[in-house]
Amino acid sequence: MKKPSPFTHPSITPEETYKSLADRQKVKRLGQFFTPDTVADYMASWASPEARTLLDPAAGSGVLLRQAQKHAQFERSVGYEIDPDMINHFHLRKLGEIRQEDFLCSAWNERFDFIIGNPPYNRFQSLKEREDIYKRFYQQTGIKFSRYTNQAVLFLIKSIYQLADNGRLAFIMPYEFLNSKYGDAIKELLIEQRLLHTLVSFGPTVRLFDQAVTTSCILLLEKKDKSKAAFYEVDTFNPSDKLKINPLSGKIISYNQLTKTGKWHTIMHMNQPRFLPGDQSGDADINDITADLEQAGQLVPLNHAVKVTRGLATGANHFFLFSQEKAKACNLPDIYLTPCLTRSSHVKHCVFTQQDFLHLKREGQNVYVLDIPAASGKTAVLPPSLVAYLEKGLLDHINESYLPGHRNPWYSMEKNKPAPIWISAASRGGLKV
Can you tell me the distance from the alpha carbon of 293 to that of 163, in angstroms, rounded to the nearest whole number? Predict the structure, then answer.
């Protein structure tokens, strides 16, 4: 690691100091993202007061161990962390028994009353020992999982198998596995053992982790039989605020309505239970209807009629998107701002008009995207206010985020030609054109 800067401010957190000193390639390779204290506290509150043994399979900064130890009197705390720099920087050995080894390669025989974790957000293919891990997982669980599985899912599966009877588990991880084919195995495990107590999903605009381009969720599991699970969605949240879940914002779903192949993101947005995957009420399932139509030759591929492309992907919405007020505060010239519909939820009716756009603008919504032609940075002098804003982006490492890091220059935007007709694919209940 680098030497600390003499300009380090005393109010900077240990996590921020570590990120400024650590090798960024290593941080990316190991999938190191720090859990906000407020989120860690919410997860740790799931610990049963009777819990006596604690495990964090990916200890990181130790924030989850620290918060968990505030909620229960653990007689034994165990954490796994493969990075010695993390262990030393955050003084993890003060929190309990810290094992400098890969949790995925460790023994399976120990059991814990409470398991809490924020596992690495990397693909299974990035593991050097992936074939050995694959064989070991199959021997222990009988589960055959896809080679495209996210490492976080592997951490979750192994943790479930190391959870004591009546034990509880709290994980924060990418939400994508609940909607992907490679997530079928873990969904089947959650359903068969009736482990899921609560699932809290965060909306696409909620950014919990710097430089992590993913939508997150919190899983609260309990190794105790139950007939229903609770699903909640958080659309707005500032990680510096206390995480509070409104009990009226969720849905209580029977286990009979859950299937391993269903996309669980639909659960929060279905108006009628009979449309839920796997419903046993006798009404037709939407997947069965689709299969019948296809077999009858009444469905044709969409690309036979239209060309489908996605909208803009900025890679850092909080930096590249602007409301009228934000643009004025930054003193950015209009020539570098392009009108843009930034959220599907901004479309309230079937047809979106210019008047609707002006209404969003008056409401202070983000309605512009920063659009600097790639040639501008080479052939023209950018105004000082824009240069200052871009320099702030460099300080915030926006240029190192995945999508900006693959553009040249990093602040240039994709050049997608506006379509004459667009349809929201995530309209959740009806078409928006």
Answer: 45
How far, in whole angstroms, is CA 56 from its chain's centroid? Answer: 19
* DSSP code, position 74: -
Cβ atoms of 53 and 74 within 8 Å: the answer is yes
**Residue 220 tokens, joined:** 């609260």
Assigned token pair, 402 = 């995945």
Only one residue has tokens 């505060």, namely 329
> Cα–Cα–Cα angle for 309, 402, 369, nearest 5°?
60
DSSP sequence for 303-325: GGT---------S-HHHHEE-HH
What sign for the dihedral angle of Cα 264, 266, 268, 272? negative
Q: What is the mean pLDDT of residues 147-169?
A: 92
| Letter string b/e over residues 29-57, b meaning 16 or more CB atoms within 10 A of that residue's CB | ebbbbbbbbbbbbbbbebbeeebebbbbb
The helix/strand/coil state of 103 is helix
Q: Where do we find the tokens 């007939």?
A: 227
Evaluate whether 91 touches 98 at the Cβ level (below 8 Å). no
pLDDT in tens, 58-84: 999 999 999 999 999 999 999 999 999
CA distance 313 to 319: 12
Read off the pLDDT of residues 392-411 as tens digits, 9 standing for 90 and up.
999 999 988 888 888 889 99
pTM above 0.70, yes or no: no
Higher pLDDT, 23 or 180: 180
Indicate the DSSP class of residue 205. T
- Cα 36 to chain centroid distance, Å, stands at 13
- Is residue 206 within 8 A of residue 220, CB to CB? The reply is no
- Please answer whether residues 78 and 57 qualify as being in contact, where contact means their C-beta atoms are separated by less than 8 angstroms: no
